[in-house]
């Protein structure tokens, strides 16, 4: 399972044999079944996850008790409630498996040790967190400026497999609409 992670890392930075061994020792493989809450709201996120296979989502409950999906991720990607993980403070979000998943996970302590031992891991970690910040800024801008149909078309262009693996109610919530609106947009697009 570590091969995919090491491959992703070495696309950005060079790793020595020792650094590859540290990576394998620091990231713990886990198998998660479909519809499992991996990290619960109200608690400090324990892990940063690398997705080897499967789909996950981050969601919170709004004031009406409805689930609002704020993030959907697939391989190869990292996922956690970043702010809460980095600062080790309780999150108001849940991390849930949408499908069966194969993951690699690392604690904050182990990540810090890896970064302290290796400039390559430090550089890679900074790039991952910068991408997360950039992604969230772009997502906020798109939710504010794109129409619902434009958001849907962008999603299926950039992540075509999401429709085959993620329930429509999660996709609708992620796109900032209700399932009926998404259904109407999908029918219009198909025509």
UniProtKB/TrEMBL annotation:
CDD domains: CAP_ED (cd00038). Pfam families: cNMP_binding (PF00027). It comes from Elizabethkingia bruuniana. It comes from the Bacteria. PROSITE patterns: CNMP_BINDING_3. This is Crp/Fnr family transcriptional regulator. Residues 14-132 form the Cyclic nucleotide-binding domain.
């Amino acid at each position: 399972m570590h091969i995919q992670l090491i491959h992703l890392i070495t696309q950005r930075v060079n790793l020595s044999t020792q650094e590859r061994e540290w990576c394998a020792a620091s990231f713990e493989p886990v198998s998660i079944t479909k519809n499992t809450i991996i990290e619960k709201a109200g608690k400090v996120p324990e892990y940063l996850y690398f997705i080897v296979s499967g789909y996950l989502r981050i969601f919170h409950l709004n004031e009406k008790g409805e689930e609002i999906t704020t993030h959907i991720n697939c391989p190869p990607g990292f996922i956690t409630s970043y702010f809460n993980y980095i600062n080790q403070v309780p999150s108001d979000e849940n991390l849930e498996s949408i499908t069966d998943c194969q993951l690699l996970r690392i604690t904050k302590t182990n990540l810090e040790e890896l970064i302290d031992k290796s400039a390559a891991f430090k550089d890679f970690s900074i790039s991952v967190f910068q991408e997360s910040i950039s992604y969230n800024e772009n997502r906020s801008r798109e939710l504010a400026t794109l129409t619902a149909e434009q958001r849907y078309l962008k999603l299926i262009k950039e992540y075509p497999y999401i429709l085959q693996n993620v329930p429509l109610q999660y996709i609708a919530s992620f796109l900032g609409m209700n399932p009926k609106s998404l259904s109407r947009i999908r029918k219009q697009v198909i025509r």
